[in-house]
Amino acid sequence: MNGTGMSLGTAPDGLLIGMVAVALLLFGVLFNQLVQWLGRRHAGYTSLLVVVGVLVTLIGVAVIDWRAAVLTLGAFAASGLPMVVGDIWRAIVAREAALKAQQDQALRQIDEVLK
Question: pTM (2 decimals)?
Answer without folding.
Answer: 0.72
